[in-house]
Amino acid sequence: MSSNRPYLLRAIYDWISDNNLTPYVLVDAGVAGVRVPPQVVKNGQVVLNLAMRAVANLDLGNEWISFQARFSGVSQAIQIPVQAVLALYAQENGQGMMFPAEEEGGDPPPPSAPEPDDTAPASGADNAGGDKPKRSTPHLRVVK
């Protein structure tokens, strides 16, 4: 039987977007086939903003998630095997779903990466990464 992960990812993405929240995805950057800029990887993981205003050409496929995003003003093609996704959640309230990490040898290796699309990304793509998945406690200070 095929994995239910891509179907759950699409459903949760739609649910978050329909509620006018910002979908963030937590990715295990150590999984073979993950293609993200190395400067956004922290502790072997990366958090990416998947909001329509932040990415172009988003494709939530059964094997791969691919899109174009800007990092430090430079457009990059991002490719993520679905099995590398650890969580998909709303940035504003943390609601979403975590997924178990795939064990070594559990699934066959990811299929070959999709061919890069040479189309130009939308000019409105924002920075899609750099945010932490967990928030620290609120801090207040007196301003005079």
Describe the structure.
This protein has one helix at 5-18, and strands at 23-28, 45-49, 55-60, 64-71, 74-81, 85-90, 96-98. With 144 residues, the chain is mainly β. Strand 3 (55-60) and strand 4 (64-71) form a beta hairpin. The longest helix has 14 residues, at 5-18.
Summarize the structure.
By secondary structure, the chain is mostly beta strands.
How can the largest sheet be summarized?
A: 4 strands, antiparallel
Shape: globular
Tally of DSSP helical segments? 1
Rg (C-alpha, Å): 16 Å
Total number of β-strand segments? 7
Structural class: mainly beta
Q: What oligomeric arrangement do these chains adopt?
A: single chain
Topology:
Layout: H1 5-18, E1 23-28, E2 45-49, E3 55-60, E4 64-71, E5 74-81, E6 85-90, E7 96-98
Antiparallel strand pairs: 1-2, 1-6, 3-4, 4-5, 6-7
